[in-house]
Amino acid sequence: MNKPILKSDPVALGAADFFARSKAKLGFDVPAGLYDPNIIPASGDPGTDKMLEIVAREQPVRPAAVLIAVVDHPEPTILLTQRSAHLNDHAGQIAFPGGKIDATDSSPLDAALREAEEEVGLSRDFVEPIGYLDLYGTAFGFRILPTVARVRPGFSLTINQSEVDDAFEVPLSFLMNPVNHQVHSKEFRGMERFYYAMPFAERYIWGATAGMLRVLYERIYSS
């Protein structure tokens, strides 16, 4: 099922404006819900919220962190990956660099930077963290805390083929245009829940990745 997004307007995008808005609206306070199963991340969709309540009762919370790497080109882009086809979870899907938070990580930020280095070889030297986005819950029990960061151009990537098949950039202007935010639905235990999709050329960006991009749009440009 596809339907248009209501009460959303295209935004005028530029790197300076995006980073200024992000710095003004984001910070590094870690939400308690990242680790507390009794706190359910709000999704704005009643079906998804109910699903997250059920998942929290049945599965242990799995804290995770991702890096929303905004590359500071004159026309800014976001760095995304395509997960390896042989993985047990989310094989072949489009994702942000990231993964579960290890006990050795000093913070969710540290986990996101570590995973970006491990997956695609993105050096921390090119990354300027700006702040955390809202906590995002998934049907697999993950509580994902995204870090928004400015990435200086000029980096080189080394793809870890055991985790990632490819890395690529998508224009920020495309991802932050609500015209490109499709809404699909599927059934979960008799309940209809909705999720976002943002197809770009041959790349099908959907699920949690598209959901977090929508949250980025709402947080930076709609709030």
TrEMBL record:
InterPro entries: CoAse, NUDIX_hydrolase-like_dom_sf, NUDIX_hydrolase_dom. SUPFAM superfamilies: Nudix. Its cofactor is Mn(2+); Mg(2+). Coiled coil: none annotated. One of its GO terms (molecular function) is metal ion binding. This is NUDIX hydrolase. Keywords: Hydrolase, Magnesium, Manganese, Metal-binding. Pfam families: NUDIX. Residues 61-196 form the Nudix hydrolase domain.
